[in-house]
Specification:
Number of strands of chain A: 9
CATH topology of chain A: OB fold (Dihydrolipoamide Acetyltransferase, E2P)
Number of helices of chain B: 11
CATH class of chain A: Mainly Beta
CATH architecture of chain A: Beta Barrel
Low-confidence stretches of chain A: none
CATH class of the largest domain in chain B: Alpha Beta
Mean pLDDT of chain B: 93
Distance between the termini of chain B: 42 Å
Oligomer: heterodimer
Order of helices and strands of chain A: EEEHEEEEEHHEH
Strand order of the largest sheet of chain B: 13-14-15-12-6-16
CATH superfamily of the largest domain in chain B: Probable tRNA modification gtpase trme, domain 1
Distance between the termini of chain A: 16 Å
Low-confidence stretches of chain B: 1-6
Radius of gyration of chain A: 13 Å
Chain lengths: 126, 429
């Protein structure tokens, strides 16, 4: 499942841009590949991140996968509830399963992301 | 093809080739989508259908069915078969009676494990040998190399020699003369009633109920001719493997799914296969056997399958030496595994109560609310009181930058991050 109103990375993160706040999560395709998640390592609030920086780890019993930042800015909020309920990402990856929020300084901070259509095509090609 | 050095090591580089579809490929696509299929040992196989947790649970509480049609099945027949197998395998084939199976190892002349196998004795001169899918090409190459003399039989001048050869054929090859077979496993407490319900013959039902571990018989299961064996790889006290003609495997799969539904049977993928065998303490070739540490059968807890008191077998001298001195062994560690606990992984360090690294995790998996890890640790530390727990290795660059270690050597002092305790080497369910 792909949401048309979100932006995507080739590493299967999604970004929802609302003003200068970017909410970040992993895509349905990513959670499907990982299987039932058992552990999520969240970034630190206050950390300054660049596009492509490792901002967390999502782990299932079979594999661990890095989460990369889709934006440049400052981490202003993390989804603490994932620490106790990592399976929220499996259940609702675009909703309750969000990972963190990044404050950005302008549109330049999210450059190079794919649209929903582009990500859909990208998935067909891999 | 293999190359050999003086010590009798057999090296084999498997040529790269595209993964094959198992004979049950279309059955898998009825139950799950393509994204859950992955390449494994040369085959495209399902990782899971619903979830690893549900499928694992089904095998423990009801029954699970596994596509094992990728496993290699070779037949050794003729007057020379028993003697030949006794020479290339570590267990004593001469003790095997018809209708019984035996766990064993194939070694090279230097004592390296080439595969762990099960030998089924079907007749005085007919043996069915099941090998790991990932090792099948290597074992076939090894047999050819033994035949053409390029593989060493006896590196130590112990008088070992292959006197005569049996007829060897690939039983999965539907084109070969004679019967063909592939493996479908049915494991868990309800597997008996599921198979029993598919047997039309009263005598066969009685045989099934009385079937001992590592015994087998031929039966008509739901109208399909099968070898029904009480063997498996899940640690289930009740579990079977059905060896069926590849042309009828899909039919059997479908009938078992239909008949098993009321008993809670589920199709299970590779994920549950791995978590079940880890929970039970069963070794996987390349992890708890051989692999990066070159783990011997003695270290893995399977010394009983290497009969040092029988005559010559390939790799015997090395086995005698390995049995006399080894200071590491495989153990089973139980750790917390509830939600929010980071999963333990292969390579993580095992730490003693004194805070010293005494070995490493080989395989680990979640099993209910706990994690079970098979570890390779100092032999003299294998008591409950000596273990502190596990130190997680760095999972990514960011963790390395913040000081997390990428490797820990034995003897190093390092803190325990998740406490654990030693439990029995094996567990049956």
């Amino acid at each position: 499942m792909i949401k048309k109103d979100l932006l995507y990375t080739s590493e299967h993160e999604w970004a929802r841009v609302e003003g200068d706040i970017v909410t970040v999560g992993i895509t349905d395709h990513a959670q499907e590949l990982l299987g039932e998640l058992t552990y999520v390592e969240l970034p630190e609030v206050g950390a300054e991140v660049k596009i492509g920086d490792e901002i967390g780890v999502v782990e299932s019993s079979k594999s661990a996968s890095d989460v990369y930042s889709p934006a440049e800015g400052k981490i202003i909020e993390v989804n603490d509830s994932l620490e106790d309920n990592p399976e929220q990402i499996n259940e609702e990856c675009y909703g309750e399963g969000w990972i963190c929020k990044i404050q950005i300084s302008g549109k330049e901070s999210v450059k190079g992301l794919m649209s929903g259509e582009e990500y859909e095509e990208f998935l067909v090609g891999i | 093809m293999g190359k050999f050095d003086k010590a009798g090591c057999f090296f084999y580089q498997q040529p790269e080739s595209a993964s094959k579809k198992s004979v049950l490929y279309n059955e898998h696509l009825k139950l799950t989508n393509k994204s859950r299929m992955a390449d494994f040992a040369g085959y495209v196989m399902p990782l899971w259908y619903s979830s690893i947790r549900e499928e694992h649970g089904a095998v423990r509480s009801a029954a699970g069915m596994f596509d094992c049609s990728h496993m290699g099945i070779l037949e050794f027949s003729g007057a020379a078969a028993e003697g030949f197998l006794n020479l290339i395998a570590t267990n004593d084939v001469s003790r095997l009676v018809c209708g019984k199976a035996q766990y064993s190892y194939i070694l090279d002349a230097a004592g390296n494990i080439l595969d762990d196998i099960i030998i089924y004795k079907r007749g005085e001169e007919v043996f069915m040998v099941v090998v790991n899918a990932s090792n099948e090409p290597k074992i076939k190459a090894y047999l050819i190399a033994l035949k053409d003399g390029s593989a060493v039989v006896d590196a130590d001048d112990a008088g070992g020699k292959i006197e005569s050869w049996p007829v060897i054929r690939d039983m999965r090859d539907a084109g070969s003369d004679g019967e063909s077979r592939v493996d479908i496993a049915l494991q868990g407490p309800a597997s008996l009633e599921v198979i029993s319900g598919m047997l039309e013959d009263e005598v066969e039902r009685e045989k099934l109920e009385k079937l001992g571990k590592f015994c087998f018989f031929e039966a008509n299961v739901g109208g399909i001719d099968c070898i029904v064996a009480r063997t498996g790889y899940t640690g289930a006290k009740v579990g079977f493997e059905l060896y069926v003609n590849p042309g009828r495997a899909s039919e059997l799969w479908g009938r078992i799914l239909g008949n098993g539904e009321k008993s809670g049977l589920r199709a299970c993928g590779l994920g549950a296969r791995d978590s079940l065998r880890i929970e039970a303490g069963l070794p996987l070739y390349g992890h708890e056997l051989d692999g990066e540490y070159g783990i011997s059968p003695f270290e893995a807890g399977y010394g009983w399958a290497v009969k040092l008191d029988k005559g010559f077998f390939i790799g015997k001298k090395a086995m005698v030496e390995r049995n006399e001195s080894f200071d590491m062994e495989v153990c089973r560690l139980e750790l917390a595994g509830e939600k929010g606990v980071r999963p333990v992984r292969s390579g993580d360090a095992v730490i003693s109560k004194d805070g010293e690294c005494i070995g490493w995790v080989l395989s680990a998996s979640k099993a209910g609310e706990r994690q079970v890890a098979l570890c390779y640790i100092n032999r003299n530390s294998v008591t409950e009181d000596d273990i502190g727990g596990v130190y997680y290795l760095a999972r990514n660059k960011r963790q390395v930058e913040s000081g997390k270690r990428e490797a820990v050597n034995k003897g190093e002092k390092i803190e325990v991050e998740l406490s654990g305790k030693i439990v029995n080497r094996f567990e049956n369910f």
